[in-house]
Every structure is written in structure tokens, then in C-alpha cells.
Amino acid sequence: MITYKNLKIVAVTKEDDYYDRKKEKTIKYKSPKITKKTVYDEEYCHDLGELYEILKFNCEKHNGYRTNCEVTFKIENEY
After folding, report:
1. Cα separations (Å) of 46 from 10, 38, 43, 77?
2. Across residues 21-29, what is the average pLDDT?
């Protein structure tokens, strides 16, 4: 049986510019502003179906405009 260890999902938001209301125009940052937020962090996931449901839920909830999800985990084989 395959198990998934240290499952971590991080939502990464990258902003290149912002709108300034006083100047009434869009201003670019010198370097992109990157915000990382851990949205799911669990030690074990025992089933492929459970892993799929976790990934599907978090990707639908946290993917959006300028935001992507990064997923990391380790695979272990149990007998």
C-alpha cells in the first residue's frame, strides 16, 4: 500500500502592480510582491482517493487571480 507523508499545500500569490487611487493609475512594483500561505499541512494521507479529494478541494478554493497552489509530499510503500 502506498502512503503519502508530509502533505503540504501552499497558496502563492504574486503581485506585480497595484492601483493608486490618488494618482488614478496602476503602479508597478520594482520587484514582485510574493505572499505564501500554508492552507493544508498534514503528516499522513493513506489513500489515493483521499489525496485526490484534498488536492481538488484546496485547488478549487485557493486558486484564483494571481494565486497558484504548490503541493509537496513524500511517497512511502507499506507492506
Report:
1. 20, 21, 10, 11
2. 91
